[in-house]
Amino acid sequence: MLRRLPYRIQIPLGLALAVILSVLLVNLVSAQIAARNARQDILHTAQRVVALLAAQGRPLLFQDDTWRAFALVKSATTLLPEVAQPHARAALLDAQGRYLAGSDPLRLPTGVQALGTLQGGRLLPTASDTAKARLLGSPGGGVTLLEPVRSDDDQILGFVLVDIDAPAFKPDWSALAAPALIGAALAMLLLIPVGWFMGRKMARPIARTAQCIAEIGRGDVARVQQRLPSVTDPELQRIVGAVRQLLSEMMVRQANAQRALSAERLAAVGRITAAVAHEINNPLAGLITAVRTLRLHGDAPEQRQRSLDLIERGLEQIRTMATALLPQARVEDRCMTERDYEDVLTLARATAAQYFVELEGQIELLHALCVPSVVMRQVMLNLLLNAIKAAGQGGQVNTQLRSDEQRVRFTVMNTGGHLGAQELHQRLHTEDHNDPHGFGLWICHEFAVRFGGHFRTLEQSELLPPYATGLVFEMPNQARQVTDT
């Protein structure tokens, strides 16, 4: 749960928790040391009491003076610490190990055998086994001190016995815990405000850096970079430096992208200009030829009418294509007719005559024909002009327009060099989409993609002799849709 809190809260709470744990640990260790020292103090005091009883009890044992022995034992017991007095007993024993006088006559009755018997859960040694001072412990933690009292001629006159129960050595935990609690409370009162201040100070640059990271991609990169904090901590310097480097690289990439976009826009304008020039120049050559024919043979009504119709449809094609370049223009095109196919052949024959190319055309309509006239005229004229140029001087070009219920297919073959599928793919996918030797092929491919058709080369098995190259353009026939509506 602490990990979910902000750093400005985690830091003071963490400091306070660390101090509290430290205070408790120190007090626990201090309590253990105090308990051990208190045990040692009680044992040392008990040993002094034993030495006192041995020194002052010698004449009393020699004289067998019980009453004075009682007074001596009583006064000697009061020398022990207060915590040990309720749990401590002292006694003088005669030479046979019997109680002569004890601080607690009920538990240490005079004349009762002490040595060699079970006392307080432990077996005391016999008188013969107590030739020197003994320190006996019990499983519960109690202690029994036993020391022989000797005469001047080193004869044992009796024994001094001091018995201390285990509760006398238990520390007073409540008294020891009070300083620990007071110290922890003072530490919290002092460290929580200090930790809160330090936490806010330490977390401020981290929060600002995180906010800047969150704004990457949504705001101005330069402004985000300016808002990065200045830090002196080595770790924060590495983080802020990495973010600053990232922003610098993003600025460079944005500048490069802007330059690339400008270059792409210029290239797009160039491609549009080239396409317009190419598509306008194609019908213009035929229209100029029609004007010349009209000028030479304008007296013949049939020839004049045919030339005027050709010029009108050619100009209408140019106008429709130019209107299509306007972003908000709505272009309405009519369905293609057989006259459009004848117009394309007429416009292409002017170029064919320049190259002395023999041009043949066939039409096979198995179903009503309905495709956009401007698009199909552009495609047919582009393919015918490219085929005428590819056939070269004295070559041959053959075309066929065929329609069925599903599609409209235009095929053109020439006797020039072979153009395979791989060469066509390379020509259509140049880096700038503009092959100077066949811009019209790229336009045909774009129309095929836009209208859901196909544009490909003919296989060798599909070619008719003597033709070496063939191209096929197909578009869906919309005649069925028009009939259904």
CATH class of one domain: Alpha Beta
Structural class: alpha+beta
What portion of residues belong to β-strands?
5-15%
CATH homologous superfamily assignment of one domain? PAS domain
Radius of gyration: 59 Å
List segments where confidence is low: pLDDT < 50 over at least 5 consecutive residues: 326-331, 431-437
Report strand order across the widest sheet.
Answer: 2-1-7-6-5
User: What is the general shape?
Assistant: rod-shaped
- The tally of helices reads 11
- Compute the average pLDDT: 80
Percent of residues in helices comes to 55-70%
Strand elements, count: 12
Q: Based on the coordinates given, report the CATH architecture of one domain.
A: 2-Layer Sandwich
> Largest sheet at a glance?
5 strands, antiparallel
Q: How would you describe this structure to a colleague?
A:
With 485 residues, this protein is of the alpha+beta class. Among the domains are: 2-173, 2-Layer Sandwich (Beta-Lactamase), CATH 3.30.450.20; 335-485, 2-Layer Sandwich (Heat Shock Protein 90), CATH 3.30.565.10. The protein is built from eleven helices and twelve strands. It has helices at 7-63, 66-77, 173-214, 221-226, 234-297, 301-324, 338-354, 373-391, 421-428, 439-450, 479-484; strands at 88-94, 99-102, 118-119, 122-123, 134-137, 143-150, 156-164, 358-365, 396-403, 407-414, 454-457, 469-476. The strands form three sheets. Strands 2-1-7-6-5 form a five-stranded antiparallel sheet. Strand 1 and strand 2 form a beta hairpin. Helix 1 (7-63) runs antiparallel to helix 2, helix 5 runs antiparallel to helix 6 (301-324) and helix 8 runs antiparallel to helix 10 (439-450). The chain is rod-shaped.
